[in-house]
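Why do we care about 3D structure at all? Because function follows from shape, and shape follows, mostly, from sequence. That is the central idea of this module. The next example makes it concrete: a single protein chain, its amino acid sequence, and then its structure expressed as tokens.
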Amino acid sequence: MIGLRSNVKKIATTYAILAAALYAINIPLSKSLMEHVSPTMMAAFLYLGAGIGLFLYGMWTKTTGKGAEREPLTRKELPYTIAIVVLDIIAPILLMSGLLMTTSANASLLNNFEIVATSLIALILFKEAVSGRLWVAVMMVTVASIMLTFEGEGSFVFNTGSLMILGACICWGLENNCTRMISNKSSVEIVVIKGTFSGLGCLAIALFMGEGFPQWNWILCTLILGFVAYGLSIHLYVKAQRDLGAAKTSAYYSVAPFLGVLFGIVLLGESPDMWFYVALTIMIAATFIMVRDTVGLQHTHKHSHTHCHEHSHGDLVHSHEHTHIHSHTHVHGDDEAIHDHDHDGHHGDHDHHHA
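And the structure:
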């Protein structure tokens, strides 16, 4: 039994890292595809790919009975749903436009600023507590992000592309907090709505701006990338979270920006300057602190009960209700105790979302 459980955890860990890798590949491949696809068209077909892919996946799970039914969205959630769609129109356009003006590695690393934006918005608008350790990490990411916004060594001219990417991160930070307000609903439905309407919104803007349709083969490549980098990544994240729990899965997933940096350097042959590597070192240290804040010092006891709980990581959110025997891990941050669940038993309905 112990050997079987260990094997399950190893498979789940592989799923989590693979989910991070699939998301990380988005930026370098998008930059490469933008030699053939304009930025706003790129944003449109990436989101349409995610929406169409998750719709087909939802139909498959419903047909085969492999997916659990979740409560659909109602009129009560309409304001948050509209806000999410609008923010997911603005953010990818900013990201793709910024990506034209800076390196893929730079853009991947700047994606860490989304954590800063999400934390600050949660604190200011939703009055959530932020631990002292997380504040240190937030300040470190902010400093590194500022370094990455300058044109180069010795230059005090801001890089417009980097500023656009930071703007995208702020939009996604706000979107993450809006998504949390509807996280008890069907994640597949949320992603299908976001992908479809945000994608169509980006497409309308692209046409209004006079951007022409790319060739059909590049459209197909972009749709596939959208499904893989968003849709398939979500699916693997869910599978990992079922056996690892939220905190451990989030910790593994935090490697995504750094994998993006590696992919950018290897696939596109980019050669970042010295300040990039200084910022990279600061980001790695900050990520370690954030993972430590999430996982923390643990002590465990076992019990059995039925409950419903929610977890979120950036724009990754899931909620489920089930009965099981599990280890209940208390995670101690600087200012508060955080609870994580390492599951062992019968798993029920899992919902999770990644914008």
